[in-house]
Amino acid sequence: MNIVSLSNSYDADFVSAVEKESKQNVSLCYQCGNCTAGCPYTHFYDIPVSQVMRLVQAGQRETALSCKSIWLCATCESCTTRCPNEIDVARVMDVLRHMARRAGYAPEPKVKTFTDSFLSSVEKHGRVFEMGLMATYMSKTGRFLTDADLGPKILPKGKLSFKPHPIVGKEQVANIFKRYNEERNS
Amino acid sequence: MSSSLTYAYYPGCSGLGTSIEYDQSTRAICAALGIELVDIPDWSCCGSTPAHTVDHTLSAALSARNIAQAEELDVQGIITPCPSCLTNLKTASHRMEDPEFKEKVNKLLDKPAENRLPIMSVLQVISEKVGPEGVAKKVVSSLEGLRVAPYYGCIMNRPPDVMDFDDCENPVAMDELMAALGADVAPFPLKVECCGASFGVARKDIVAKLSGKLLDAAEDVEAHAMVTACPLCQMNLDLRQDQINSANGSTHDMPVFYYTQLIGKALGLDAKSLQMDKLCVPPAKAFRKMEEARRANAS
Ligand code: SF4
Ligand code: SF4
């Protein structure tokens, strides 16, 4: 990790916002590295999870919110389960991703597109429509060959429906998204 | 009051599609074990991982709509086969113990959730309410000779204060059930390691690496098959096994069962309800090895 100069880049508001949203006290982290040791995704991260925790403690908003790691965390709960100071580290990672989204960062655009396609499927049908989700994902990313090799394996099994399974209460589900968006924009 | 083992059942979206064999075999074994499932009326998607990576209130509300729907029923609790749905339902319920959060969640819903029902996995109900002994009594066709590697995935038992079931580092519920069926349970060292989760689509390289490690380990402990309790784990290990092999230069040919399918087989349930033919890596090889092991033991 690069050396950061705390005197001119410490963002106290950022630290308290992370603490408030995650309900965790990040100053309890003493950098034992347990979370990183158990994190199966470290290999794919640009910044290991314990260093992300350090960046939050040090109020390094920009560096923390622009990293790829927070988009690749799978919420496997290893870090949370093993942190000796009972910090819900996975929740901190989740909250950082929420903030990064709001601030417009998306260093893993395909991950973001997958998430967005998934949720719009839920918003529209009330349940995820797997075929439709893949179609939306492919048209948004232009990756038409995504998983094309799986087609011959899965289609003959008759597992995938070509039609969504709409539910009676799909309006109620759409309302959840509507109210959530209104709340956020108010 | 309903009978002692009546639960509101939450199938989860993949149960209608990519994990239909899990849903069907779950329903079949619950019926055989005396667990009554009442589908949650007009259930909706819990939002899975995407929802909680976007916002915790939104995610909790998507789960809470289902909790509210289940509260219309006369049941002991809510149960689901899928660990991802389970995590969302349990986390929502856990966080809604905070009145302020509960109010925020209920404001997003047409019908507020009281949040009074316990939430469990089907695995927890079978292992705690029926128990390995209860299952063993119903075995008509033992799995003796079948060497299985039980793989729990990352979130069935973690974090422990929310999931509140089995051991968070070394869970044993499936091991005990498999042993009760007569199977030979391999000591699988990566029981709770992540398989690559929902990155199969956006980042295949991650699934190839993490699920590849799991398949390697199952091979190392000389398992004839892996046994899972999670639709996503099963899909990564089974449907994506060829992708994993070509990415890693490996040659795995490892059947990956749902634990419910193996229970069903040992209980003598019909092939239609167990849907073994939906698995991508054909399970026949595992059963052949089981027969060979039996013959070797007998001689
Ligand atoms: S395990 Fe906990 S205390 Fe240790 S480095 Fe990670 S967050 Fe900090
Ligand atoms: S929850 Fe995220 S950061 Fe924590 S161990 Fe798992 S992948 Fe790593």
From TrEMBL, chain A:
GO cellular component: plasma membrane
GO molecular function: 4 iron, 4 sulfur cluster binding; metal ion binding; oxidoreductase activity
Record has Membrane as a keyword: no
PROSITE patterns: 4FE4S_FER_1, 4FE4S_FER_2
Keyword Ligase: no
Matches recorded under Gene3D superfamilies: Alpha-helical ferredoxin
InterPro entries: 4Fe4S_Fe-S-bd, 4Fe4S_Fe_S_CS, HdrC_iron-sulfur_subunit, Helical_ferredxn
Name of the protein this chain belongs to: Heterodisulfide reductase subunit C
TrEMBL record, chain B:
MF term (GO), any: oxidoreductase activity
InterPro entries assigned: Cys_rich_dom, HdrB/HdrD_reductase
Domain Cysteine-rich: 7-90, 149-238
Keywords assigned by UniProt, alphabetized: Oxidoreductase
Record PANTHER family: COB--COM HETERODISULFIDE REDUCTASE SUBUNIT B 1
Stated name of the protein: Heterodisulfide reductase subunit B
Lineage, highest ranks first: Bacteria, Pseudomonadati, Thermodesulfobacteriota, Desulfovibrionia, Desulfovibrionales
